[in-house]
Write a structure and sequence with these properties.
Structural class of chain B: mainly beta
Number of helices of chain A: 0
Number of strands of chain A: 9
Helix content of chain A: under 10%
Oligomer: heterodimer
Number of helices of chain B: 0
Largest sheet of chain A: 5 strands, mixed
Strand content of chain A: over 45%
Chain lengths: ~110, ~110
């Protein structure tokens, strides 16, 4: 199964947009792109997922490159509560893997 | 709604002991899974189930057994605990393999 590459850490100022990148150059046509986040001492929390088209929900937006080899999670206005580790994950229908990797640790500066 | 409930929250074992970590969900989800998370690492999939009576191995299955006799419950058994199994264990459930997963709060397990 394909894996992803994310920066280890990023910083953002409060109330500014945040763009969290993810590279997945070996993605296959049927792989879904998922984003989860994990706050300290908590279980992961679903953020968003998509296949080919850009996706929006109340938490964030997911922008998927045309060749699908990369994607970007967009938090439109970062708050202190958004400080967490963000994981970009690929999953394949029928596959048995769901690789979390080490994610991107987001720090939000007041 | 309770969501995904894991028990116990904390446990200390001695090497060689056996133990069952409990996971229950009340959302009628077909897909359930177990992960472990070591310090500073992402989660790694241990075992998963696509429905009652059906289980399969994930990335790191050795030393663990699972069963799925009901839709609601998915226990994880450590057969003979080893210090390398010291970790935080998370259970998750979802309506399907590609659907959003709901995670429990975790079980922090230390093996001496």
């Amino acid at each position: 199964d394909a894996k992803t590459t994310q920066p280890n850490s990023m910083e953002s100022n409060e109330e500014e947009p945040v763009h969290l990148p993810c590279n997945h150059s070996t993605i296959s046509g049927t792989d879904y792109i998922h984003w989860y986040r994990q706050l300290p001492s908590q279980g992961p929390e679903y953020v968003i997922h998509g296949l080919t088209s850009n996706v929006n929900n109340r938490m964030a937006s997911l922008a998927i490159a045309e060749d699908r080899k990369s994607s970007t999670l967009i938090l439109h206005r970062a708050t202190l509560r958004d400080a967490a580790v963000y994981y970009c994950i690929l999953s394949r229908p029928g596959g048995n893997q769901f690789y979390f990797g080490t994610g991107t640790s987001l720090t939000v500066i007041p | 709604n309770a969501g995904v409930t894991q028990t116990p929250k904390f446990q200390v074992l001695k090497t060689g002991q056996s133990m069952t970590l409990q996971c229950a969900q009340d959302m009628n989800h077909e897909y359930m899974s177990w992960y472990r998370q070591d310090p500073g690492m992402g989660l790694r999939l241990i075992h998963y189930s696509v429905g009652a009576g059906i289980t399969d191995q994930g990335e790191v299955p050795n030393g663990y057994n699972v069963s799925r006799s009901t839709t609601e419950d998915f226990p994880l058994r450590l057969l003979s605990a080893a210090p390398s199994q010291t970790s935080v264990y998370f259970c998750a459930s979802s309506r399907g393999r590609e659907q959003p997963q709901h995670f429990g709060d975790g079980t922090r397990l230390s093996i001496l």
